[in-house]
From TrEMBL:
Signal peptide: none annotated. Pfam families: Sigma70_r2, Sigma70_r4_2. GO terms for molecular function: DNA binding; sigma factor activity. Keywords: Sigma factor, Transcription, Transcription regulation. One of its GO terms (biological process) is DNA-templated transcription initiation. This is Sigma-70 family RNA polymerase sigma factor.
Length: 180
């Protein structure tokens, strides 16, 4: 179902719930994994994903269609994930590098994160990246989004995104070589 068809169904009060259910079925997995790559913990990612769709339910009526629904949902998911991590840091008065250490520990003990040793190293390398570089890398590498869409999600120019991605890949490469 196209974005336009979904929005038409959503704007009709009789089919609103069906449209929203379709939106959730279509994007829930992708939103969950995008959030999961930021917050690492399964339960936190589940909670944030639910929060994203609650916000989508209340905000979809004002969706102007300037971007794809997918892009809009990812922007909401990113903002919710970042806000969650900021609250977590403030609540526990924890410096950012300690939060990264905690997330790295969760990576190793989480059976859902699974994967081989290389995948685990990659995820740990991602945790070492600044937040913006990690987001850009995740969206470009894992989600395979074009820079133009990432620019809509992040509000950053395509040129700056390309630079962020370049530096992220360089830092990941350096981290992986240092851990061998």
């Amino acid at each position: 179902m196209s974005d336009e068809e979904l929005l038409i169904l959503y704007r009709n009060l009789d089919t609103r719930r069906n449209a929203f259910n379709q939106l959730v079925r279509t994007y829930q997995q992708k939103v969950y994994w995008m959030v999961r790559k930021i917050v690492i913990d399964h339960d936190d990612a589940n909670d944030i994903t639910q929060e994203v769709f609650i916000k989508a339910w209340s905000g979809l009526e004002n969706f102007r269609g300037d971007s794809r629904l997918y892009t809009w949902l990812f922007r909401v998911a990113h903002n919710e994930s970042v806000n969650f991590l900021k609250k977590k840091r403030r609540r526990f008065f924890v410096p950012i590098h300690d939060v990264e250490g905690e997330l790295a520990d969760k990576l190793e003990s989480d059976p859902l994160m699974g994967g081989d040793e290389i995948q685990l190293k990659l995820q740990k390398a991602l945790l070492k990246l600044p937040e913006k570089q990690r987001l850009v890398f995740n969206l470009k590498y894992f989600e395979e989004l074009p820079y133009e869409e990432i620019a809509e999600i992040t509000g950053t120019s395509v040129g700056a995104l390309k630079a962020s991605y370049h530096w992220a890949t360089k830092k990941i490469e350096d981290f992986l070589q240092a851990t061998d």
